[in-house]
Amino acid sequence: MDLLKALKSKALRRTAAFSAVAVLALGVTQAKATNNVAVLGHISASVQGTLTVAETSAINFGNFAIACTTCTAGGDTITLTDEGTRTKTGTDITFLSGSAGIAAGTNLETGSQTPGFYTITNSDGITNVYVSFANAAGAIMDSNHPNNYATITGPAPDNQTFTVKSFTYEADSSAATGPNSSGYTALAGGGTDAYGQYVACGASCTIRVGATLSTNVTTKAYDPGQYTGTFYVMVSY
């Protein structure tokens, strides 16, 4: 009889333990269920027909002198807007204007700067065309990838570089606004939705592209000469 009692007592203890585990597991499952959240994701694909984009003229940050006495990586910048104006930060860069003597930093400045012009053609009847940018390695450059940038490189032997990022654009109109206009007139249309920024293009349109150039030297002055590089303008439906 003592053996039977012992077996019954052991069975009861195991049943109680299993019940406790089951209750505990049920409690954990319920706690997870009450904390579930969800967000609606969006998916897109682009089947391209006759959609093309071509560079009409390159982005040009214009003429400037740079002393680089206090340069730091990213410390001095030139922002060239898609409307042709440029502004600077830091104390090492000096804008060079042309013989007309128009003040630096205005959209009539004669420092040879110009936004890039890119012509989009589209005969598929789809109005909205999405525009994005990537560097020469194919890395996306946008607000979600702030550490990605394009590079422009100067003459040998030093081959120094500037970084270029924060690309902006707007659709361009060929309509002039007067004899004192910069000639860069925004075309109405476009916006942003769940898939990105777009322009209302129609069969053909031109976009102007600006960006921000930053110093990438901390040890010595920049060599004079041309600094060039590449990037991608990507368009899709």
List keywords for this structure.
about 15% helix, about 240 residues, 1 helix, four-stranded antiparallel sheet, alpha+beta, 2 domains
Strand % is 25-35%
How many helical elements? 1
- Using the alpha-carbon principal axes, give the shape: globular
| First and last CA, distance | 84 Å
Question: Uncertain spans, ≥5 residues at pLDDT below 50?
Answer: 10-29, 98-105
Number of strands: 14
H/E element order: HEEEEEEEEEEEEEE
Q: Which percent range fits the helix content?
A: 10-25%
How many separate domains make up the residues?
Answer: 2
Query: Over the alpha carbons, how many angstroms does the gyration radius reach?
Result: 30 Å
Mean pLDDT, to the nearest integer, reads 78
Helix/strand/pairing category: alpha+beta
Note the main sheet: 8 strands, antiparallel
